[in-house]
Specification:
Helices cover 38% and strands 16% of the residues. It is of the alpha/beta class and 329 residues long. The protein has one domain: TIM Barrel (Alpha-Beta Barrel), CATH 3.20.20. It is globular, with a radius of gyration of 20 Å. The N and C termini lie far apart (48 Å). It binds ligand PBG. The site of ligand PBG has 12 residues, from helix 6.
Length: 329
């Protein structure tokens, strides 16, 4: 028996160049999707209290953010509107208005920065008075098929305005197929669908609801359409269906507590998988850093790298611009 270890795994870790040489995972700004909140007015920046460092921007200033994203090497921005209270209705019909905040923002961005990808959320919650992602019946139940019809209309006005990736986040059954059909029929054959196939009814969405102004509005919860955090097999069925209906890529949401789902989807379906590092995850890192419990930059980069290691093609994160700055050195 030798008195030395047969293998020394520390050998390849012993210098910077060697660690870089054997690194299995790469994270770059091109893997990041930057979510931006749009609000009304001109020259308006509204900081969001529950998301320190994140603001809502009026359309003119969103364009500046798109230029910034491009300069940082971020390929895609995701848009969410803070619809004025007076335009919210029970049926969320403002979602179908070709001149709503979302559509105006898409057009302004595509005019100014044509080669940045624009991803748009499809769901009615920023437009409804009750804060749900769809239409509700007298009992408060979110009805599936009529909601889907509205979502198709919403996706079409977004595509007509220039959206590159339609991202249904509503969890209605059958909506990916319905949206795909409508896009094809309207000639938007290269508009992609990134389906939030596995979206969980999560406690991590709090600050987002604040950001899109639906915090005080939401009646009840979203458990009859978003998934139970206890389930993983069911996520595979959701993904399988959405792929069959024409999804080009899959989103898992939230991110960090669901890395197992990301890995399972990647191994089983071999389709591009994305993680949404949601508002509560962002707030958690910011709070930890502010409390001195960890180094902010290191926490941000480690969590983003973990998503890549788990199998993600990319990550939608409120830390996108900050992380891109760090990655660009
Ligand atoms: C709505 C939507 C939500 C988020 C993105 N799209 C909220 C919800 O489902 O209630 C949350 C994102 C975040 O927390 O960052 N369809």
């Amino acid at each position: 028996m030798s008195m030395y270890p047969a293998l020394r795994l520390r050998r390849t870790r012993s210098s910077t160049w060697s660690r870089a040489l054997v690194s299995e995972t790469h994270l770059g700004p091109q893997h990041l999707i930057w979510p931006l909140f749009v609000t009304s007015g001109q020259g308006v920046e509204e900081p969001i209290a529950s998301l320190p460092g994140v603001s809502r921007w009026s359309v003119d200033l969103i364009v500046a953010r798109a230029r910034e994203a491009k300069a940082l090497g971020i390929g895609v921005i995701a848009l969410f509107p803070n619809t004025p209270r007076e335009l919210r209705t029970d049926d969320g019909r403002e979602a179908l208005n070709r001149d709503n905040l979302m559509c105006r923002a898409i057009r302004a961005i595509k005019d100014a920065v044509p080669d940045i990808g624009v991803l748009t959320d499809v769901a009615l919650d920023p437009y409804t008075t009750h804060g749900h992602d769809g239409l509700i019946d007298a009992t408060g139940y979110v009805v599936n098929d009529t909601t889907s019809e509205l979502l198709v209309g919403q996706a079409l006005v977004q595509a007509e305005s220039g959206a590159d990736i339609i991202a249904p986040s509503d969890m209605m059954d059958g909506r990916v197929g319905a949206i795909r059909d409508a896009l094809e029929e309207a000639g938007h054959i290269n508009v992609q669908i990134m389906s939030y196939a596995a979206k969980y009814a999560s406690a991590f969405y709090g600050p987002f609801r604040d950001a899109v102004g639906s915090t005080g509005l939401l009646k009840g919860n979203k458990k009859t359409y978003q998934m139970d955090p206890a389930n993983a097999d069911e996520a595979m069925r959701e993904v399988e269906l959405d792929i069959a209906e024409g999804a080009d890529s899959i989103m898992v949401k939230p991110g960090l507590p669901y890395l197992d789902i990301i890995r399972r989807v990647k191994e089983r379906f071999e389709i591009p998988v994305f993680a949404y590092a949601v508002s509560g995850e962002y707030a958690m890192i910011e709070a930890a850093a502010a409390a001195g419990a960890g180094d902010r930059d290191a926490l941000v980069l480690e969590t983003l790298l973990a998503f890549r290691r788990a199998g993600c093609s990319g990550i939608l994160t409120y830390h996108a611009a900050h992380a891109a700055r760090l990655l660009n050195g």
